[in-house]
Design a protein that fits this description.
The chain is of the alpha/beta class. The protein contains 22 helices and eleven strands. GO terms for molecular function: DNA binding.
Protein backbone atom coordinates (compact mmCIF):
# COMPACT_ATOMS: atom_id res chain seq x y z
CA UNK A 1 0.00 0.00 0.00
CA UNK A 2 1.48 3.29 -1.15
CA UNK A 3 0.57 6.95 -1.12
CA UNK A 4 0.75 8.72 -4.49
CA UNK A 5 2.65 11.99 -4.14
CA UNK A 6 2.68 14.55 -6.94
CA UNK A 7 5.44 17.16 -6.67
CA UNK A 8 5.19 18.40 -10.26
CA UNK A 9 2.43 20.99 -10.37
CA UNK A 10 0.46 21.68 -7.22
CA UNK A 11 1.42 19.21 -4.49
CA UNK A 12 -1.13 16.43 -4.17
CA UNK A 13 -1.15 13.46 -1.79
CA UNK A 14 -3.50 10.55 -2.52
CA UNK A 15 -4.04 7.82 0.09
CA UNK A 16 -3.95 4.11 -0.87
CA UNK A 17 -7.77 4.00 -0.90
CA UNK A 18 -7.90 6.84 -3.44
CA UNK A 19 -8.96 9.59 -1.03
CA UNK A 20 -7.22 12.97 -1.07
CA UNK A 21 -4.86 13.37 1.91
CA UNK A 22 -3.07 16.58 0.88
CA UNK A 23 -2.03 18.68 3.91
CA UNK A 24 -4.00 21.88 4.33
CA UNK A 25 -1.14 24.16 5.40
CA UNK A 26 1.37 25.27 2.75
CA UNK A 27 4.32 24.78 5.08
CA UNK A 28 3.23 21.23 5.83
CA UNK A 29 3.13 20.61 2.07
CA UNK A 30 6.65 22.04 1.76
CA UNK A 31 7.79 19.87 4.66
CA UNK A 32 6.40 16.79 2.92
CA UNK A 33 8.19 17.69 -0.32
CA UNK A 34 11.51 18.29 1.43
CA UNK A 35 11.35 14.97 3.29
CA UNK A 36 10.31 13.16 0.12
CA UNK A 37 13.41 14.43 -1.72
CA UNK A 38 15.58 13.28 1.19
CA UNK A 39 14.81 9.75 -0.08
CA UNK A 40 14.61 8.06 3.31
CA UNK A 41 17.45 9.93 4.99
CA UNK A 42 16.78 11.43 8.42
CA UNK A 43 16.74 15.24 8.51
CA UNK A 44 17.57 17.28 11.60
CA UNK A 45 14.77 19.37 13.03
CA UNK A 46 17.12 22.36 13.08
CA UNK A 47 17.44 22.08 9.30
CA UNK A 48 13.65 21.96 8.89
CA UNK A 49 13.22 24.99 11.14
CA UNK A 50 15.83 26.91 9.15
CA UNK A 51 14.09 26.00 5.90
CA UNK A 52 10.53 26.99 6.78
CA UNK A 53 10.71 29.23 9.86
CA UNK A 54 14.02 31.05 9.43
CA UNK A 55 12.44 34.33 10.53
CA UNK A 56 11.12 32.93 13.81
CA UNK A 57 12.77 32.57 17.20
CA UNK A 58 13.97 29.15 18.31
CA UNK A 59 10.97 28.36 20.52
CA UNK A 60 8.40 29.65 18.02
CA UNK A 61 10.11 27.74 15.22
CA UNK A 62 10.11 24.50 17.22
CA UNK A 63 6.43 24.90 18.10
CA UNK A 64 5.51 25.59 14.46
CA UNK A 65 7.47 22.55 13.29
CA UNK A 66 5.69 20.34 15.83
CA UNK A 67 2.30 21.53 14.54
CA UNK A 68 3.31 20.86 10.93
CA UNK A 69 4.57 17.39 11.83
CA UNK A 70 1.33 16.67 13.69
CA UNK A 71 -0.71 17.62 10.60
CA UNK A 72 1.53 15.54 8.32
CA UNK A 73 1.31 12.53 10.63
CA UNK A 74 -2.50 12.78 10.53
CA UNK A 75 -2.49 12.99 6.71
CA UNK A 76 -0.39 9.81 6.57
CA UNK A 77 -2.39 7.86 9.16
CA UNK A 78 -4.03 5.61 6.55
CA UNK A 79 -0.94 3.37 6.60
CA UNK A 80 0.40 1.56 9.66
CA UNK A 81 3.03 1.98 10.85
CA UNK A 82 2.88 5.66 9.97
CA UNK A 83 5.44 6.46 7.22
CA UNK A 84 6.52 9.57 9.17
CA UNK A 85 9.21 8.62 11.69
CA UNK A 86 9.99 11.22 14.35
CA UNK A 87 10.92 9.23 17.46
CA UNK A 88 13.97 10.63 19.22
CA UNK A 89 14.55 13.73 17.12
CA UNK A 90 15.50 13.70 13.41
CA UNK A 91 12.63 13.23 10.97
CA UNK A 92 12.34 10.87 8.00
CA UNK A 93 9.79 9.41 5.60
CA UNK A 94 9.89 5.73 4.72
CA UNK A 95 10.40 5.91 0.92
CA UNK A 96 8.76 2.54 0.24
CA UNK A 97 5.44 4.02 1.38
CA UNK A 98 5.34 6.51 -1.53
CA UNK A 99 4.98 6.48 -5.30
CA UNK A 100 6.42 9.89 -6.24
CA UNK A 101 5.81 11.33 -9.69
CA UNK A 102 9.19 13.05 -9.81
CA UNK A 103 10.95 9.69 -9.57
CA UNK A 104 8.70 7.86 -12.03
CA UNK A 105 9.33 6.83 -15.62
CA UNK A 106 6.25 8.81 -16.60
CA UNK A 107 7.84 12.09 -15.55
CA UNK A 108 10.84 11.40 -17.78
CA UNK A 109 8.66 10.36 -20.71
CA UNK A 110 6.70 13.60 -20.47
CA UNK A 111 9.85 15.66 -20.88
CA UNK A 112 11.29 13.52 -23.69
CA UNK A 113 8.04 13.77 -25.68
CA UNK A 114 8.08 17.57 -25.47
CA UNK A 115 4.80 17.71 -23.56
CA UNK A 116 4.15 20.53 -21.12
CA UNK A 117 5.62 19.76 -17.72
CA UNK A 118 4.36 21.73 -14.71
CA UNK A 119 6.85 23.31 -12.31
CA UNK A 120 8.02 21.69 -9.10
CA UNK A 121 5.57 22.69 -6.31
CA UNK A 122 3.74 25.00 -8.68
CA UNK A 123 1.65 27.68 -6.99
CA UNK A 124 3.12 27.25 -3.51
CA UNK A 125 3.51 30.59 -1.71
CA UNK A 126 5.63 30.65 1.45
CA UNK A 127 7.12 34.01 2.52
CA UNK A 128 10.43 32.63 3.80
CA UNK A 129 13.71 33.50 2.08
CA UNK A 130 15.42 30.21 2.98
CA UNK A 131 12.58 28.15 1.56
CA UNK A 132 12.38 30.20 -1.63
CA UNK A 133 16.13 29.87 -2.21
CA UNK A 134 15.81 26.11 -1.85
CA UNK A 135 12.74 26.01 -4.13
CA UNK A 136 14.52 28.05 -6.80
CA UNK A 137 17.57 25.82 -6.67
CA UNK A 138 15.58 22.60 -7.03
CA UNK A 139 13.67 24.01 -10.01
CA UNK A 140 16.92 25.13 -11.67
CA UNK A 141 18.50 21.72 -11.14
CA UNK A 142 15.48 19.96 -12.60
CA UNK A 143 15.58 22.28 -15.62
CA UNK A 144 19.31 21.70 -16.04
CA UNK A 145 18.84 17.93 -15.92
CA UNK A 146 16.02 18.10 -18.44
CA UNK A 147 14.06 15.98 -16.00
CA UNK A 148 16.86 13.40 -16.10
CA UNK A 149 17.22 12.52 -19.76
CA UNK A 150 20.69 11.15 -18.93
CA UNK A 151 20.69 10.76 -15.14
CA UNK A 152 18.07 9.55 -12.67
CA UNK A 153 15.82 12.28 -11.32
CA UNK A 154 16.26 10.73 -7.87
CA UNK A 155 19.75 12.27 -7.76
CA UNK A 156 18.23 15.64 -6.92
CA UNK A 157 17.33 14.17 -3.54
CA UNK A 158 20.87 14.82 -2.34
CA UNK A 159 20.49 18.55 -2.85
CA UNK A 160 18.08 19.68 -0.10
CA UNK A 161 19.99 18.16 2.78
CA UNK A 162 23.22 19.88 1.79
CA UNK A 163 21.74 23.38 1.73
CA UNK A 164 21.18 23.58 5.48
CA UNK A 165 23.49 22.95 8.45
CA UNK A 166 23.53 19.25 9.29
CA UNK A 167 24.65 19.79 12.89
CA UNK A 168 24.51 22.87 15.13
CA UNK A 169 28.16 23.14 16.16
CA UNK A 170 30.80 25.61 17.15
CA UNK A 171 33.56 26.04 14.57
CA UNK A 172 37.19 26.56 15.63
CA UNK A 173 40.04 27.35 13.25
CA UNK A 174 43.57 26.27 14.19
CA UNK A 175 46.14 28.91 13.24
CA UNK A 176 49.77 28.17 12.26
CA UNK A 177 52.09 27.45 15.19
CA UNK A 178 54.00 30.46 16.50
CA UNK A 179 57.43 29.42 17.79
CA UNK A 180 60.92 30.83 17.75
CA UNK A 181 62.68 30.56 14.40
CA UNK A 182 64.74 27.41 14.16
CA UNK A 183 63.28 25.82 17.29
CA UNK A 184 62.21 22.54 15.76
CA UNK A 185 61.46 20.88 19.09
CA UNK A 186 59.04 23.65 20.09
CA UNK A 187 57.34 23.29 16.70
CA UNK A 188 56.94 19.55 17.17
CA UNK A 189 55.54 19.96 20.68
CA UNK A 190 53.00 22.56 19.55
CA UNK A 191 51.83 20.47 16.60
CA UNK A 192 51.56 17.36 18.76
CA UNK A 193 49.36 19.23 21.23
CA UNK A 194 47.20 20.70 18.47
CA UNK A 195 46.81 17.32 16.74
CA UNK A 196 45.49 15.80 19.97
CA UNK A 197 43.23 18.80 20.56
CA UNK A 198 41.75 18.52 17.07
CA UNK A 199 40.97 14.87 17.80
CA UNK A 200 39.10 15.84 20.98
CA UNK A 201 37.18 18.55 19.11
CA UNK A 202 36.09 16.09 16.46
CA UNK A 203 35.09 13.41 18.97
CA UNK A 204 32.99 15.83 21.01
CA UNK A 205 30.42 16.37 18.21
CA UNK A 206 30.20 19.95 19.53
CA UNK A 207 33.21 21.57 17.84
CA UNK A 208 34.08 21.39 14.14
CA UNK A 209 37.84 21.95 13.78
CA UNK A 210 39.38 23.68 10.74
CA UNK A 211 43.13 23.16 10.39
CA UNK A 212 44.78 26.22 8.82
CA UNK A 213 48.31 25.42 9.99
CA UNK A 214 49.60 24.84 6.47
CA UNK A 215 47.63 27.66 4.83
CA UNK A 216 48.11 31.41 4.62
CA UNK A 217 44.56 31.89 5.88
CA UNK A 218 41.04 30.54 5.71
CA UNK A 219 39.89 29.71 2.15
CA UNK A 220 36.96 31.73 0.75
CA UNK A 221 33.62 30.61 2.12
CA UNK A 222 35.06 29.09 5.29
CA UNK A 223 34.56 31.21 8.37
CA UNK A 224 35.02 29.58 11.78
CA UNK A 225 33.48 31.27 14.81
CA UNK A 226 36.75 31.23 16.72
CA UNK A 227 40.46 31.12 15.93
CA UNK A 228 42.85 29.26 18.25
CA UNK A 229 46.55 30.10 18.38
CA UNK A 230 49.38 28.38 20.26
CA UNK A 231 52.82 29.83 20.88
CA UNK A 232 55.58 27.59 22.25
CA UNK A 233 59.04 28.77 23.26
CA UNK A 234 61.94 27.21 25.13
CA UNK A 235 63.59 28.91 28.09
CA UNK A 236 66.41 26.86 29.56
CA UNK A 237 64.98 23.60 30.85
CA UNK A 238 61.41 24.86 30.56
CA UNK A 239 58.90 25.23 27.75
CA UNK A 240 56.35 28.05 27.87
CA UNK A 241 53.01 27.53 26.12
CA UNK A 242 50.70 30.48 25.44
CA UNK A 243 47.26 29.59 24.02
CA UNK A 244 44.53 32.01 22.97
CA UNK A 245 41.04 31.66 21.49
CA UNK A 246 39.54 34.78 19.88
CA UNK A 247 36.10 35.44 18.42
CA UNK A 248 36.46 36.19 14.71
CA UNK A 249 33.62 38.68 14.44
CA UNK A 250 34.54 40.93 17.37
CA UNK A 251 38.22 40.02 18.02
CA UNK A 252 37.26 39.49 21.66
CA UNK A 253 39.41 36.99 23.56
CA UNK A 254 37.28 34.09 24.80
CA UNK A 255 40.05 32.30 26.64
CA UNK A 256 43.80 32.47 27.12
CA UNK A 257 46.29 30.57 29.24
CA UNK A 258 50.04 30.36 29.82
CA UNK A 259 51.54 27.05 30.99
CA UNK A 260 55.08 26.10 31.97
CA UNK A 261 56.41 22.56 31.71
CA UNK A 262 59.88 21.26 32.50
CA UNK A 263 61.57 19.32 29.73
CA UNK A 264 61.90 16.36 32.10
CA UNK A 265 58.11 16.28 32.62
CA UNK A 266 57.22 16.58 28.95
CA UNK A 267 55.81 13.12 28.32
CA UNK A 268 52.65 11.65 26.85
CA UNK A 269 50.87 11.81 30.20
CA UNK A 270 51.46 15.58 30.42
CA UNK A 271 50.33 16.03 26.80
CA UNK A 272 47.12 14.10 27.47
CA UNK A 273 46.40 16.16 30.57
CA UNK A 274 47.04 19.48 28.80
CA UNK A 275 44.79 18.70 25.84
CA UNK A 276 41.96 17.40 28.05
CA UNK A 277 42.14 20.48 30.29
CA UNK A 278 42.31 22.87 27.32
CA UNK A 279 39.29 21.24 25.72
CA UNK A 280 37.24 21.46 28.94
CA UNK A 281 38.10 25.13 29.46
CA UNK A 282 37.46 26.09 25.84
CA UNK A 283 34.09 24.37 25.54
CA UNK A 284 32.99 26.08 28.76
CA UNK A 285 33.93 29.50 27.34
CA UNK A 286 32.30 28.79 23.97
CA UNK A 287 29.01 27.91 25.63
CA UNK A 288 29.07 31.00 27.85
CA UNK A 289 30.17 33.51 25.19
CA UNK A 290 27.44 36.06 24.44
CA UNK A 291 28.64 36.72 20.89
CA UNK A 292 27.08 33.54 19.49
CA UNK A 293 23.43 34.05 18.60
CA UNK A 294 23.01 31.95 15.45
CA UNK A 295 20.56 29.06 15.49
CA UNK A 296 23.32 26.54 14.79
CA UNK A 297 24.81 27.16 18.25
CA UNK A 298 21.58 26.48 20.12
CA UNK A 299 21.75 22.69 20.45
CA UNK A 300 25.47 22.72 21.26
CA UNK A 301 24.75 25.13 24.13
CA UNK A 302 21.98 22.87 25.40
CA UNK A 303 24.30 19.86 25.47
CA UNK A 304 27.02 21.76 27.33
CA UNK A 305 24.46 23.07 29.82
CA UNK A 306 23.00 19.59 30.29
CA UNK A 307 26.40 18.01 30.95
CA UNK A 308 27.12 20.77 33.47
CA UNK A 309 23.88 19.92 35.28
CA UNK A 310 24.57 16.18 35.32
CA UNK A 311 27.48 16.52 37.73
CA UNK A 312 25.47 18.78 40.06
CA UNK A 313 23.65 15.56 41.00
CA UNK A 314 20.42 16.98 42.49
CA UNK A 315 17.11 15.56 41.19
CA UNK A 316 16.05 18.98 39.90
CA UNK A 317 19.28 19.52 37.97
CA UNK A 318 19.17 15.99 36.53
CA UNK A 319 15.59 16.55 35.40
CA UNK A 320 16.54 19.82 33.70
CA UNK A 321 19.53 18.11 32.06
CA UNK A 322 17.17 15.48 30.69
CA UNK A 323 14.87 18.13 29.25
CA UNK A 324 17.78 19.89 27.56
CA UNK A 325 19.16 16.68 26.07
CA UNK A 326 15.74 15.62 24.79
CA UNK A 327 15.41 19.00 23.11
CA UNK A 328 18.94 18.76 21.69
CA UNK A 329 18.13 15.33 20.25
CA UNK A 330 15.17 16.96 18.49
CA UNK A 331 17.52 19.45 16.85
CA UNK A 332 20.70 17.57 16.07
CA UNK A 333 21.69 14.10 14.93
CA UNK A 334 25.09 13.58 16.57
CA UNK A 335 26.31 10.44 18.29
CA UNK A 336 27.54 12.05 21.50
CA UNK A 337 24.27 13.94 22.00
CA UNK A 338 22.33 10.68 21.99
CA UNK A 339 25.15 9.11 24.04
CA UNK A 340 24.84 11.73 26.77
CA UNK A 341 21.06 11.29 26.74
CA UNK A 342 21.44 7.53 27.15
CA UNK A 343 23.99 8.00 29.94
CA UNK A 344 21.84 10.48 31.86
CA UNK A 345 18.63 8.49 31.44
CA UNK A 346 20.35 5.34 32.70
CA UNK A 347 21.97 7.24 35.57
CA UNK A 348 18.59 8.59 36.67
CA UNK A 349 16.98 5.15 36.42
CA UNK A 350 19.73 3.63 38.56
CA UNK A 351 19.57 6.48 41.07
CA UNK A 352 15.77 6.34 41.42
CA UNK A 353 15.61 2.54 41.39
CA UNK A 354 15.89 0.26 38.38
CA UNK A 355 12.92 -1.87 39.43
CA UNK A 356 10.56 1.12 39.24
CA UNK A 357 11.83 2.68 36.03
CA UNK A 358 11.45 0.18 33.19
CA UNK A 359 10.26 2.86 30.78
CA UNK A 360 13.31 4.99 31.55
CA UNK A 361 15.60 2.00 30.98
CA UNK A 362 13.97 1.36 27.61
CA UNK A 363 14.54 5.00 26.67
CA UNK A 364 18.21 4.71 27.71
CA UNK A 365 18.64 1.59 25.58
CA UNK A 366 17.02 3.28 22.57
CA UNK A 367 19.27 6.35 22.86
CA UNK A 368 22.32 4.11 23.28
CA UNK A 369 21.45 2.16 20.14
CA UNK A 370 20.91 5.38 18.17
CA UNK A 371 24.23 6.81 19.35
CA UNK A 372 26.02 3.66 18.21
CA UNK A 373 24.30 3.73 14.82
CA UNK A 374 25.50 7.29 14.26
CA UNK A 375 29.15 6.67 15.19
CA UNK A 376 30.40 3.45 16.79
CA UNK A 377 34.05 4.54 16.58
CA UNK A 378 33.84 7.74 18.64
CA UNK A 379 35.58 7.03 22.00
CA UNK A 380 33.30 9.35 23.98
CA UNK A 381 30.16 7.87 22.44
CA UNK A 382 31.42 4.34 23.09
CA UNK A 383 32.25 5.19 26.71
CA UNK A 384 28.79 6.63 27.34
CA UNK A 385 26.99 3.75 25.65
CA UNK A 386 29.12 1.08 27.35
CA UNK A 387 28.28 2.62 30.71
CA UNK A 388 24.59 2.12 29.96
CA UNK A 389 24.98 -1.49 28.85
CA UNK A 390 27.34 -2.61 31.60
CA UNK A 391 26.39 -0.81 34.79
CA UNK A 392 22.68 -0.24 34.25
CA UNK A 393 21.42 -2.87 31.79
CA UNK A 394 23.94 -5.36 33.27
CA UNK A 395 25.06 -6.67 29.87
CA UNK A 396 28.82 -6.84 30.52
CA UNK A 397 29.58 -8.94 27.43
CA UNK A 398 27.98 -6.38 25.14
CA UNK A 399 29.82 -3.54 26.87
CA UNK A 400 33.15 -5.34 26.44
CA UNK A 401 32.42 -5.91 22.75
CA UNK A 402 31.58 -2.23 22.21
CA UNK A 403 34.71 -1.04 24.03
CA UNK A 404 37.21 -3.39 22.38
CA UNK A 405 37.86 -1.34 19.18
CA UNK A 406 38.59 1.93 21.04
CA UNK A 407 40.27 0.82 24.26
CA UNK A 408 43.68 2.03 23.01
CA UNK A 409 42.32 5.60 23.04
CA UNK A 410 41.82 5.55 26.82
CA UNK A 411 45.01 7.53 27.51
CA UNK A 412 43.47 10.50 25.66
CA UNK A 413 39.92 10.18 26.98
CA UNK A 414 39.39 10.17 30.76
CA UNK A 415 35.75 9.19 30.36
CA UNK A 416 36.72 6.16 28.27
CA UNK A 417 39.43 5.19 30.78
CA UNK A 418 36.89 5.43 33.59
CA UNK A 419 34.38 3.27 31.71
CA UNK A 420 37.06 0.63 31.09
CA UNK A 421 37.96 0.78 34.77
CA UNK A 422 34.38 0.11 35.82
CA UNK A 423 33.95 -2.68 33.28
CA UNK A 424 36.99 -4.54 34.65
CA UNK A 425 35.83 -3.76 38.18
CA UNK A 426 32.56 -5.60 37.61
CA UNK A 427 34.32 -8.38 35.69
CA UNK A 428 36.49 -8.95 38.78
CA UNK A 429 39.86 -7.81 37.39
CA UNK A 430 40.55 -5.21 40.09
CA UNK A 431 44.21 -4.60 39.20
CA UNK A 432 43.32 -3.67 35.63
CA UNK A 433 40.40 -1.62 36.95
CA UNK A 434 42.86 0.25 39.18
CA UNK A 435 45.20 0.95 36.25
CA UNK A 436 42.46 2.43 34.08
CA UNK A 437 41.07 4.43 37.02
CA UNK A 438 44.50 5.91 37.69
CA UNK A 439 44.70 6.81 33.99
CA UNK A 440 41.31 8.54 34.17
CA UNK A 441 42.31 10.49 37.29
CA UNK A 442 45.58 11.68 35.75
CA UNK A 443 44.16 12.62 32.35
CA UNK A 444 40.93 14.08 33.70
CA UNK A 445 42.36 16.11 36.54
CA UNK A 446 40.64 19.25 35.20
CA UNK A 447 37.41 17.52 34.18
CA UNK A 448 34.18 18.39 36.00
CA UNK A 449 33.68 14.62 36.34
CA UNK A 450 36.95 14.08 38.22
CA UNK A 451 35.03 13.19 41.40
CA UNK A 452 33.65 10.18 39.49
CA UNK A 453 37.10 9.14 38.29
CA UNK A 454 38.53 9.43 41.83
CA UNK A 455 35.63 7.34 43.14
CA UNK A 456 36.39 4.61 40.58
CA UNK A 457 39.97 4.57 41.86
CA UNK A 458 38.72 4.18 45.44
CA UNK A 459 36.36 1.36 44.43
CA UNK A 460 39.19 -0.68 42.91
CA UNK A 461 41.34 -0.03 46.00
CA UNK A 462 38.53 -1.30 48.23
CA UNK A 463 38.45 -4.61 46.34
CA UNK A 464 42.26 -4.85 46.42
CA UNK A 465 42.15 -4.59 50.22
CA UNK A 466 43.66 -1.11 50.27
CA UNK A 467 40.87 0.18 52.48
CA UNK A 468 42.63 3.20 53.98
CA UNK A 469 43.66 4.39 50.49
CA UNK A 470 40.09 3.85 49.34
CA UNK A 471 38.71 5.96 52.19
CA UNK A 472 41.29 8.68 51.50
CA UNK A 473 40.40 8.85 47.81
CA UNK A 474 36.67 8.92 48.63
CA UNK A 475 37.25 11.97 50.83
CA UNK A 476 39.24 13.53 47.98
CA UNK A 477 36.33 12.83 45.61
CA UNK A 478 33.91 14.53 48.00
CA UNK A 479 36.19 17.56 48.05
CA UNK A 480 36.03 17.66 44.23
CA UNK A 481 32.24 18.12 44.26
CA UNK A 482 30.91 21.59 43.64
CA UNK A 483 30.48 23.32 46.98
CA UNK A 484 27.08 24.78 46.13
CA UNK A 485 25.53 21.46 45.16
CA UNK A 486 24.41 20.22 48.55
CA UNK A 487 24.20 16.78 46.92
CA UNK A 488 26.93 14.14 46.91
CA UNK A 489 27.73 11.30 44.50
CA UNK A 490 26.16 8.17 45.94
CA UNK A 491 28.88 5.71 44.76
CA UNK A 492 31.41 7.88 46.65
CA UNK A 493 29.35 7.71 49.85
CA UNK A 494 28.78 3.94 49.54
CA UNK A 495 32.47 3.26 48.91
CA UNK A 496 33.54 5.53 51.77
CA UNK A 497 31.14 3.82 54.18
CA UNK A 498 32.36 0.35 53.16
CA UNK A 499 36.06 1.27 53.17
CA UNK A 500 35.75 3.03 56.52
CA UNK A 501 33.98 0.00 57.98
CA UNK A 502 36.79 -2.33 56.90
CA UNK A 503 39.51 0.13 57.97
CA UNK A 504 38.01 0.76 61.42
CA UNK A 505 37.18 4.40 60.63
CA UNK A 506 33.77 4.09 62.24
CA UNK A 507 32.87 7.77 62.65
CA UNK A 508 33.69 8.62 59.03
CA UNK A 509 31.79 5.59 57.78
CA UNK A 510 28.71 6.33 59.86
CA UNK A 511 28.68 9.93 58.67
CA UNK A 512 28.79 8.77 55.03
CA UNK A 513 25.93 6.30 55.61
CA UNK A 514 23.86 8.97 57.33
CA UNK A 515 24.25 11.36 54.37
CA UNK A 516 23.48 8.55 51.92
CA UNK A 517 20.26 7.66 53.71
CA UNK A 518 19.03 11.25 54.11
CA UNK A 519 19.94 12.20 50.56
CA UNK A 520 18.42 9.15 48.89
CA UNK A 521 15.46 8.65 51.20
CA UNK A 522 16.15 4.93 51.64
CA UNK A 523 18.00 2.52 53.93
CA UNK A 524 21.40 1.93 52.23
CA UNK A 525 21.74 -1.62 53.57
CA UNK A 526 18.22 -2.55 52.50
CA UNK A 527 18.91 -1.19 49.01
CA UNK A 528 21.88 -3.58 48.73
CA UNK A 529 19.55 -6.53 49.44
CA UNK A 530 16.95 -5.53 46.83
CA UNK A 531 16.74 -5.87 43.07
CA UNK A 532 17.84 -2.24 42.88
CA UNK A 533 21.34 -3.02 44.15
CA UNK A 534 23.87 -0.88 42.26
CA UNK A 535 26.43 -3.71 42.11
CA UNK A 536 26.13 -6.35 39.37
CA UNK A 537 29.23 -8.15 40.75
CA UNK A 538 28.30 -10.35 43.78
CA UNK A 539 31.84 -10.19 45.20
CA UNK A 540 31.72 -6.39 45.24
CA UNK A 541 28.25 -6.47 46.77
CA UNK A 542 29.51 -8.76 49.55
CA UNK A 543 32.53 -6.57 50.40
CA UNK A 544 30.46 -3.38 50.42
CA UNK A 545 27.71 -4.90 52.55
CA UNK A 546 30.19 -6.34 55.07
CA UNK A 547 31.94 -2.98 55.37
CA UNK A 548 28.66 -1.21 56.07
CA UNK A 549 27.57 -3.86 58.57
CA UNK A 550 30.80 -3.38 60.52
CA UNK A 551 29.66 0.14 61.24
CA UNK A 552 26.86 -1.40 63.34
CA UNK A 553 24.26 0.55 61.42
CA UNK A 554 21.07 -1.40 60.74
Amino acid sequence: MQFRLSLLGALTLVAPDGSIATPRMAKTQALLAFLALADGRAVNRAALQDLLWSDRGQKQGRDSLRKALAELRLCLSAVEPNPLETTGGPVRLRPEAFDIDLFSQGARCGVESGLYQPAFLEGIDIPDDEFNRWLCRIRLELDAQGMSRTTPVRQVSSTPCTLLPARPLFEVGILPVDSAAGDGLADRIANLLLNDLITLFDQSSLIVPYDFRHMAGAPPGIGPDVMLSLQVSGLGDTFILAARASHVGSARVLWSAVDHVARADLGQEWVNGWTAATFDKLIERLAAFDGFDAAEHHAARMVVSAVDRIFRLTPGELGEAGRLLDEACDLVEASTVFGWNAFLTAFRAEKEGRERNHEMLERAEWCAARATELDRHNPLTVALVAHVYSFVLRDLDRAAEILAPVRDASSRSPFLADTLSMLHFYLGDYKLAHRFAREAVNTGRFSPFRFSFTTSLAMSELMLGQTEDAARHCKAALAQHRVRNGHLYEPTLRTLAAAAGHAGLRDEGRAALDILGRQGGYDPLERLKSGDTPYPNPDVLKVVRQGMERLNVQ
